[in-house]
User: Which sequence fits this backbone?
DNA sequence: TCGCCGCGCTACCATTTGACATAGGGCTGA
DNA sequence: TCAGCCCTATGTCAAATGGTAGCGCGGCGA
């Protein structure tokens, strides 16, 4: 937990309130959350915000930035499990008293909103609608993980990579992080390979092949897709039902 | 949806009440669930209970038997996403209005308890504790999917298979489905391969190799593990924090 | 300014995994 | 009783993917 600037901004100034893809909280909910919120903290690009194996008394909502969640085996093999976008909740995965099962690293500078795990029960009791939303979020995350499972288990290397690119761009667009179909973000090839279950070398080759095929342009600091429809068909991407997401 | 015997047993007679690994509902909760429950239906081994792509107005709790959830790509490739044991909830994955993202097939004769999706909000409003449990379940399922992701993405074929065997036996034991460390269940090699992201042939070869190594004995109608500790270490299995699970 | 280090890239070769073909056993229904 | 089907098992060969090593570039700190 690399905390910085543990300061507390009012919920009325929450950047998520004006995020297009998110359904804003109503007055009552805002008021409740104001009391529920414990603070914020900011992390720099590349820092670990949650550490696998530690016992954390907190749950977080990502306010700004992009992170990824991963798991590591004792011998160092790493699997990136999913990416975290503004509005997503972190730390709810797994049972509530168990040590954290995954780590979390920042791809960009990021801000997190901190909640107490112990007080979660209050939230369900006093704001059933928010409790419902929490379940909704968990269910949605589950669906995303299933997609990735299908990808790694049954898609070829090229398909996986195109699929991932589509997935990332779509989520970026839904949170207003893209610019005209280009998602400006720095993901190393090593991170890509750990997401897709490929070796580093093979990731590199596949990446280049996709550039040549004009399917995906994945460079050091951005992702773009020349023709989304072609890419969709190529990777058997089915879209994500999208619509607005709740948060907090 | 292959319904049979759409009849309704009282919640007081719910078989889950006496399932060792599950935390039983209290009187008040039982009473509420009694009104919430819409009925039961039974399915035979091998039948599809949920169909991918259909829009289902229901959510289910598995009362008896074992199922698996899967996704299929248009070209027929199938990925089994997880296994379902008594007490698990089905149908909450994914957003609530979207078409079902996965199918569900029975490995044994099974009984499902039916709830209305629309009335879920009531549950959160009137029984916050149950709402909380629902989130807990979703979070736990998420954790399981992450495990499988790591498996498929970063473990070798042998490790994956040992891991899966451990996982299944552990869950079976937690719901009283095993017999002295042997889990009597019929899973075809084709189903195993679709779970692990391997080809059928390779699955067969790996299975035999594990038998020779005395790591896992996976036969046509049962799974057993000669030495659990050895298997754990071999597959880098970390156990699942277990403890009692809530349900409904 | 120089050297170090992380990252992308390439080449060569090893290993894992997949595809296709085929055979046998057991179950089921005509 | 026999054909047909599903499942397990085996062999051979091909393709996909991984491992190791080495090069070059650019950022960064001494």
Assistant:
């Amino acid at each position: 937990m690399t905390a910085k600037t543990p300061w507390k901004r009012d919920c009325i100034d929450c950047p998520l309130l004006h995020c297009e893809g998110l359904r804003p909280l109503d007055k009552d909910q805002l008021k409740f959350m104001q009391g529920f919120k414990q603070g914020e903290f900011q992390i720099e690009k590349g820092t670990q915000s949650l550490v696998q194996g530690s016992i954390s008394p907190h749950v977080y909502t990502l306010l700004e930035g992009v992170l990824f969640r991963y798991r590591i085996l004792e011998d160092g093999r790493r699997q990136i499990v999913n990416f975290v976008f503004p509005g997503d909740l972190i730390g709810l995965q797994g049972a509530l008293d168990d040590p954290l099962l995954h780590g979390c690293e920042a791809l960009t500078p990021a801000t997190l909103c901190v909640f107490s795990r112990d007080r979660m029960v209050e939230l369900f009791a006093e704001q059933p609608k928010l409790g419902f939303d929490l379940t909704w979020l968990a269910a949605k995350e589950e669906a995303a993980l299933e997609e990735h499972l299908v990808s790694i288990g049954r898609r070829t290397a090229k398909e996986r990579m195109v699929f991932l690119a589509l997935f990332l761009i779509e989520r970026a667009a839904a949170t207003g992080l893209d610019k005209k179909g280009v998602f400006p973000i720095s993901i190393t090839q090593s991170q890509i390979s750990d997401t897709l279950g490929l070796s580093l070398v093979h990731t590199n080759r596949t990446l280049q092949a996709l550039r040549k095929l004009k399917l995906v342009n994945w460079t050091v600091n951005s992702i773009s897709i020349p023709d989304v429809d072609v890419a969709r068909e190529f990777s058997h991407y089915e879209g994500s039902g999208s619509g607005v997401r709740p948060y907090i």
